[in-house]
Amino acid sequence: MTPDVYTGGYFETNAYALALPGDAQSCLLIDAPAGSADWLRSRGQRVAGLLLTHAHIDHVEDAARIIREHNCPIYHHADGIPLLQDTAAYRRFGLSVEFEPVTGGVLIDETTEPVSFSGLPFRLLLVPGHCPGSICFYHAESRQVFSGDTLFAGAVGRWDLPDGDRDLLLSGIKNKLLPLGDEVRVHAGHGPRTTIGRERATNPYLVEKF
Question: For the whole model, what pTM was predicted?
Answer without folding.
Answer: 0.95
